[in-house]
């Protein structure tokens, strides 16, 4: 059994980001930049007014002064002339500051009547002016390659005049559920069988984390069928199997794929849930074999598949899921040599701090418990017993779309 | 000026969830259930083995005993007979427990040879058996209406045998940017003009939060053009405008829409950034008029549009964005009467606690600063001065896809 950290690092080492494609700005949210975004213009392009009011010469605009209104400068319609001595120009937020003016008299401090305006409060030079380039300057690096685009980034790329962006292609993840005992929802279930839940749960995890899932037909426990289904691997950036990863005679993934050119890296990890986990390569395609238990499959999905997706997608963020700290709501016993990921509810204390409550029963077949969990509590190998109130590391599931 | 909380509650009050549509389980991630999901079967359907090993009668399976292997029970292929005295049946994880057996002898505690198996460690009755219904029972409520489906929920609905789900239709949000001074990225920019960033940033926010954005062509500052564009409102669940919301003569949204049947509820909010904010109804369609400044538009998007999306989508979660607590990395002055949303970076202290650092310049035109922010610091009206190290409420932007 190899440690969780080592397994993750061997998985990440074997993966490279997908190539770039052109995406429209309108479709760029959540995509990972393959090339940096530089500003194509300076923003604002000139000194502009930060408020509605009057562009004035501060020297003329002491309290009580009366100025002649020489014109108007709405946003998008710059005033053609200059502001002379004793003059003001009506101006609106975002409009270019007219020549000669060096400050803005706020609308609420101005009394306008018959082409003149009376200054209600002395104006300081430079007041309410946004300087050219306050936001960014032409050529400036705004968004680095490897950045997963937020809504704000999309706005920034738009403001910098980019209708198109270069993004890494969404990693295509083949998902192959195996087992004679499983059937798709709504289809006839064999005697003693169950309805398959892993493939579509993992597909959702892939989609939530920027990948493109390809759900393959279920393969029965038959070497030829698994080998045929696995041929779909050629068009995938990563093939994920579920089931068939443990040491049972009926766990055929390893033996079925050998003749297809499968090269195993490792297949047992010191973690709970999820000990049997295959990592290797099927021809050119990396293969991640997840356990068949639905809870194990999803927890291993968070711990290994999600980092793999981040690496494949070209994201510069830390591939490991972000952890946070929370106080334990109940004591935990000493841990054994397997890294434990406990399903837990999250509450907030009266003081507003997060409190985490592991479920008392942690069986890896209990999908309902997992669905009701808010977080996984991380218990490293040989972690000492922890009292209620102690701080532990957690992974918040909902933030991962999982 | 009305308070932020009151504005949000008036917005939410005016909105109702969209109707239901049928969605495939494969497309259900992130959708909000319009009807609850009940279990269509019991899981596991019978007592099953939790491990690979041998199904035995515990009374026969003391350390050192040798049992006759009467058959095999892989998952999906139940053993047809019963386990008699002195017998064992080879069994695999998830397989139905054969009649007569009451415990599992672990594979690693068994020594098999020539049709017999030697017990390496005494087996307790009931050991390594998952009882029928351990996960859920037929008819049980698994997922309530109003739940936004996670990957885990998709797995649970699959396991409960649902190929189809009833979800609320994605709210369709019309987005209308107005202003003579703005042009789409890559298109010719008028003199003194800027490139439009709000529409696509808001569209990304809508998409990130389960809505379907409809980006309308930019409307120039011309009443007829705005009125025409607003006619698209009829097919939207909500129309969002940006720009034109303040009191300037060139802020035409209010005046242009009056003749089209626009009924104003309120238009000024005690917040910064974002004082000018219109809320009303255009015919049957609610209308949210956001400020034209890109930072104001996005912050108001987080504070008002995102809750509106949650309400329209039928989600039972708290519509207001979730807040967390962090220590201030720098002192803040006393706040005035406007609710302040400060753009800030988030760091982690050596002790692993979140530390929040507001940017020193908070100008509402600085989109680059917003893009580099991790969080908004909430400063309620008249908040007293806060020293470095004090705890404040924050909204983490990335978790919202914003």
TrEMBL record, chains A, B:
Q: Where is the MoaB/Mog domain?
A: 174-311
UniProt xrefs under SUPFAM superfamilies: MoeA C-terminal domain-like (SSF63867), MoeA N-terminal region -like (SSF63882), Molybdenum cofactor biosynthesis proteins (SSF53218)
Q: Name a GO CC annotation attached to this entry.
A: cytosol
Cytoplasm listed as a keyword: no
SMART domains xref list: MoCF_biosynth (SM00852)
The reaction(s) catalysed by this protein are: adenylyl-molybdopterin + molybdate = Mo-molybdopterin + AMP + H(+)
Pathway(s) served: Cofactor biosynthesis; molybdopterin biosynthesis
Q: Which residues form a coiled coil?
A: none
Q: Name one GO biological process term.
A: Mo-molybdopterin cofactor biosynthetic process
The entry's keywords: Magnesium, Metal-binding, Molybdenum, Molybdenum cofactor biosynthesis, Transferase
Name a GO molecular-function annotation. Answer: molybdopterin molybdotransferase activity
Question: Which coenzymes or cofactors are required?
Answer: Mg(2+)
User: EC number(s) for this protein?
Assistant: 2.10.1.1
Q: Which domain of life is it from?
A: Bacteria
> Looking at the Swiss-Prot or TrEMBL record, what is one Pfam family this protein matches?
MoeA_N
Function of this protein?
A: Catalyzes the insertion of molybdate into adenylated molybdopterin with the concomitant release of AMP.
By its UniProt entry, which PANTHER family does this protein fall under? GEPHYRIN (PTHR10192:SF5), MOLYBDOPTERIN BIOSYNTHESIS PROTEIN (PTHR10192)
Question: Would you identify the family this protein belongs to, as annotated?
Answer: Belongs to the MoeA family.
The molecule here is called Molybdopterin molybdenumtransferase
Q: Please tell me the species this chain comes from.
A: uncultured Acetobacteraceae bacterium
Classification of source organism:
Bacteria, Pseudomonadati, Pseudomonadota, Alphaproteobacteria, Acetobacterales
